[in-house]
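Late entry, written up from scratch paper. The run itself happened at the end of the previous shift, but nothing got recorded in the book at the time, so transcribing now.
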Amino acid sequence: MSTAPTTTKPLRIGPFEVGTPVVLAPMAGITNVAFRRLCRQYGAGLYVCEMITARALVERDAMTMHMITFDPDEHPRSMQLYGVDPRTVGEAVRMIVAEDLADHVDMNFGCPVPKVTRKGGGAALPYKRRLFAEIVRAAVEAAEPAGLPVTVKFRIGIDDEHLTYLDAGRIAEAEGARAVALHARTAAQRYSGQADWSAIARLKEAVTSVPVLGNGDVFSAQDALRMVDETGCDGVVVGRGCLGRPWLFRDLQAAFAGEPVPEGPALGEVARVLRTHAELLTEHHDEDKGVRELRKHMAWYLRGFPVGGDLRRSFAMVSTLAELDDLIGQLDLDAEFPAEAEGPRGRQGSPGRVVLPEGWLDDPEDSTVPAGADVMHSGG
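Output as recorded:
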């Protein structure tokens, strides 16, 4: 195992020093307080909650208020905010400050989901340079009195013909963002194909006064070291790589410290982690919803292990903790971690045309807030 690159140092996000330069990417329906606690038990880093919409927060939507639950010992409390209207974003950040809801705000400009880009949000928004600048400025100005750092995450662009990341990085830096993160894919790629790490290197050359974080295709500790080595980025953002594998943060901590990366866990340890995840989800929701939420994680946890098809299907349909315990009892707990469990995981899908508001590409300097774009629902 190679040692950490000599350039690796603790990541500084405003007043916060993150000992291991690793950030958990916000993932809808995944990075709730239960999953974040599980990941934090394995290693240092910055752990970001699910995406929260500014409008839903301001309106105190009940589901959104539940989603911003943090552990008492979680620090810094990191909230990702989505918004398309500078006024709403400013109001949301002022609320976060006034009510001490978080210690760090990460702005989402990377979501490629059609229901978001159709309204000019997510990965579509940085194309509108003035509007993008106004949103970042509104968040930074609202956060400044409390010293809350604001960071900004975005993609390479809408598609290969409309690249926005270099402008987005320079604008975010100029408006006071304390770090920028690049998912090195276009919105049109979604999660398919290969991330273009060379774009991370170019962004690092363009943005010089704040940390630049790289995101995309970090599925192992070795991937993270290689990304830092090849691009010069200041840290890595990990999303799909930790699905069903929260111990990846243990591996990352070891790798960045120049220590040997531990072997993957046997099925008995994986089962213990899975059972803990179920308990934490039950604590956050209730047993019925918590165990149902766990179903989506089953294929990731069991990937590559010698588990028969019938048993896999039963895990995917589990509905109670007692039933889960019965299923775990049917596993070969001594089975070693398989090579098949390594590599890419999570949704990949296929590229597609990005759905945009009518006339969206006509004028990148137009700062008009898209009609009906201020959505209420978080986590999308």
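The longest helix spans residues 267-284.
(Scratch paper discarded after transcription.)
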